[in-house]
Amino acid sequence: TKWVYSFGNGRAEGRADMKNLLGGKGANLAEMSNIGINVPAGFTITTEVCTHYYANDRSYPDELARQVKEALASVEAIMRCQFGDAENPLLVSVRSGARASMPGMMDTVLNLGLNDQTVQGLIKRSGDARFAYDSYRRFIQMYSDVVLGVEHYHFDHLLEILKEDRGLTLDTELSADDWKVMVERFKARVLEETGTPFPEDPEEQLWGAIGAVFRSWMNQRAITYRKLHHIPEEWGTAVSVQAMVFGNMGDDCATGVCFSRDPSTGENVFYGEYLVNAQGEDVVAGIRTPQQISLAGKTKNKSTLPAMEEVMPDLYRELVSIRDTLEAHYRDMQDMEFTIQGGRLWMLQTRVGKRTAAAALRIAVEMAQEGVITANEAVLRVDPEALNQLLHPTLDPKAERIVLTRGLPASPGAASGRVVFSASTAEDWVQNGEKVVLVRTETSPEDIGGMHVSQGILTTRGGMTSHAAVVARGMGTPCVAGAGEIRVHEADRVFTVRGTTVREGDLITLDGATGEVMLGAVPTVQPELTGDFGTLMGWADDRRTMKVRANAETPEDAETARRFGCEGIGLCRTEHMFFDPRRIIAMRRMILAEDETGRRAALADLLPYQRKDFIDLFTIMTGLPVTIRLLDPPLHEFLPHTDNEIAEVAQVAGVDVGTVRDRAAKLAENNPMLGHRGCRLGVTYPEIYEMQARAIFEAAVHVGRESGNAPVPEIMIPLVCTKRELDLMKAAVDNVAQAVFAETGTTLDYTVGTMIELPRAALQAGSIAESARFFSFGTNDLTQTTLGISRDDAAAFLETYQAKGIFKRDPFATLDADGVGELVRLAAERGRATRPDLKLGICGEHGGDPDSIAFCQGAGLDYVSCSPYRVPIARLAAAQAAL
Ligand code: ADP
Ligand code: MG
Ligand code: MG
C-alpha cells in the first residue's frame, strides 16, 4: 500500500481531488505544486494511516517507516539540506489536515529537527543566532505542548521571569544569548515535568509529532467541532510533513493569510493580513496587530500601518497573480496562507474559504454573472442552512446607539446579550435561559462550546483572520474582533472602555457588520430580501419541482411566511388558536362539560373566534392553498391545573369547584401522546370538528365574497389509522359544508385529506386514499410512533445514541430515511396507486431540514411545509434536491 505522497519542485503524487486520502491541506499542497506554484517540498501521510493507527492499538503499518524515509530523502534533495545535519539542517513542520477543514482544532508543530547541533547549522545558514535560538525555543515550546503535554504557561512563565530579571518588556528586546538561556531553561522544565529529557534526536522528534497529530484527531475540541459540523469520526486526519520556510528571518521576511474575495461581504477585492518578520501562527493568534495586504483593505479597515502593497510592491503583485491563478483554478473563493523568506514568496496552504452567508450569496451570484460558474452551480454552492443568518433582524438604523467603542467587523449580524467572560459561564448562563455575549481578550479552540451558545463574540485582540473571527463566521455568529480600547479584567469580571465599566451580566449589543460595540439592547428591524438574495432565490425557484409551504396559524407567522415566499400553508394547527387566555376558558368549559349540550354551548362561544382566525389567514394567503388541521392535541393538555384555573372554569360554567376537579381527574391521561387526541376527539365529540368545519366554511365564504377570490380550504384530519375514521370525519365535514352553502347560498371547492402519522396509516395508505384527497406526512409523530420514542423524553439517551453511532443524526431533526422514510415511500406508492392525483406533502419539523427535503424529493412529494423562517432555506434546499 502507498501510505505516503510526495510534493514539491513543480510536481506531486497527489491531486486536489484526493482530499479523502490526503486531507484538504495535503491535497491542495499537491495541487499547487502541480500547477507550478512555489510550495516548500514535503509529503503527506494518508488518512488511511490514521484509520490503521486507531484500528491497530495506535500502531503504524509496517511499510510506513520506509516510505517516510524515502519521502524525506526526496525533500532533502529538493531543498538541498539534510534532516538532522549539523552543518545544513532541514527543518520541517508537521501539519494536520482532515477532509473537511477544521481550523485550529488539531495540532501543528513547526521548526522540527532542531537540537543543540542543528541549531548551529541554522545559525550558519541564516547568519542570525538570535533568530536561530528564538526558533529553537519556539520549537521546544510547541513540541512540548503538543507532543509531551507540557502546557504553554510553563514556558510563558519562564519567559516572564527572564524579562523581569533583564528589565525588558518586549520579546523583540531579547538577545541571542537570552534566547539561548531560554532554551536551556525550557528543556530543564520539560525534564522536571515529564521526568525525561527533551528529545534531541530529530527522528524521534518526527515520529513524536506524527503520533501527536494523529492523536489530536481525538482531542476534545476536535470531537466537539466534528459534532457541530456533522463530520464523521471515521474520516481521520492526514499528516503533512513539509520543509520549513521562515517568515521571521528579518525585515525581508513576512507571513500572512489572505482571501481572494472579502469573506465577510463577498466583495470582489483582495483581502488579507500579514506581519513582517513573524512566523505563521502569529497572525492567527492575534498577538501582534496585523497589517493589511492591499491598499483597499487598508482604507476599509481604517488601518494606519502600511499595506504590503506599499511595503513590498513586487511581492504583492506576485501574490495577486497567485490569487488569480488559484481562484480561476478552483473556481471558488480561496483562503490562502503564505510566507516570504528573504524576498521569496512561498504558498503554504489554499482552501475554499469559509464565508458569511451574505458573502456566500454574493460570491455565488457574482461568479455566475462573471461566467466563472453556472447558475446551477451557484444554487448548489450556498448552504441553505446559512441563509438563516440573513433572515434574522438587523439593528434598527434609526434606534439610538450608545457606542462604547469600535472593533473589526469580523462576522456580520446583530447580537444583544449579557456580558460573560468565559466560555463555561456562557454555557451555564445559556442553560438557564439567558442570552449572552462572550467577551474575551482572544478566543482559543477550547472556547468552542461557549462560542456556539453565545449570541455574539467580542474580542479585544486579533484581526479578521483570528480564531474568533474565523470560527464566528463559520457558525454565523456575529463577532467584533480586536476592539483594542477595551481592557478585560477577567478576575473582577468587568471590562473597561473609555472610562465606562461594564460588568458581567450587563447588556451589550454588537454590530458585526460595522464593528460597533454598544451599551444596552438596541432594537432591530427585518432584513431586506432583495439584491443577491432575490437573484439566487429566483434561480432556485426556477429549478425546484417541489412547492414550499409554511406551518403557520397566527397572522404574524402567515405574513412572515408570505414575505419569505411560501406557496401556501401546509399546516395550520387549530389548537394553537385555543391557548389564548381569553379562549382557553371556553375551551376548558367545553371539555369539562358533562354532556353534548354543555359542549355545544361552549363551542358556540368559540366559533366566532375561530371564524375570525380563518378569515385573517385566508385573507393573508389569498390565492394560495391553506391546509387546516382539525383539533389534534390530547384533551389532557387543556385541563386546568392550578386551583385558580379550576375556580375560574367552575365560575364560568356555573358549577362547583369539586365537580370541575372530579371531571378533570377523570380526563387526566397516563400517556396523552397516545391517548384521547387527533381524530379520536372528532369521533367521540363530533361537535368539536363540526364547529371547526363551520368556522372554516363561513370564513371561506366571507373571504370569497370580500375578495372575489374564494379560498380552497384543505381540511386535514389528524391521527387517522383506519379508513373508517376518516370516512366518519369526512361525512361530518361534508354535512357542515352543505349546511353552510345552503345558509349562504354559495358553494366553494374544498378537499378533505389526512395526516399520515401512524405506521398503520402508512401501511393502509392504499385504502385510506380512497377517501383522502391528500396526505400530509406528520413526520414528528410518525417518527415517535415508528421508533417508539417519545420526543419529549428522548433527551435522556439521544446524545448517547448518537455518540455510540446507533443514530447518525437526531431522527427528530433529520428524517430517519431507512425506517420512517421507508414508511413514507411505501405510503406514497400505495396512496398513488389508488388515487394517481393524490397530493403529497410533509409538515413535520423535517420539512425545513435540507437533508430531509432531499429525501422528500426522492419520495415524489409535491410540497414540503416548514416554519416561516425556514421557508427560504427550504426553497433553496428543494432546488438543490432537484438538481
Ligand atoms: P492550521 O490547520 O491550524 O492552519 P497549519 O498546518 O496550516 O495549521 O499551520 C499553521 C501555520 O504554521 C501556517 O499558517 C503557517 O503559517 C505555519 N507553517 C506551517 N507549515 C509551515 C512551513 N513549512 N513553513 C513555514 N510556516 C509553516
Ligand atoms: Mg492553516
Ligand atoms: Mg401529529
TrEMBL record:
Summarize the protein's role: Catalyzes the reversible phosphorylation of pyruvate and phosphate.
Q: Work out whether the entry's keyword set contains Membrane.
A: no
Q: Return the similarity comment.
A: Belongs to the PEP-utilizing enzyme family.
Q: What is this protein called?
A: Pyruvate, phosphate dikinase
Record EC number: 2.7.9.1
| The species this protein was found in | Pararhodospirillum oryzae
Q: What class of enzyme is it?
A: transferase
Chain residues that bind substrate: 573, 629, 757, 778-781
Annotated Pyruvate phosphate dikinase AMP/ATP-binding domain ranges read 20-56, 63-301, 316-370
**Which residue spans traverse the membrane?**
none
* Active site, per annotation: 467, 843
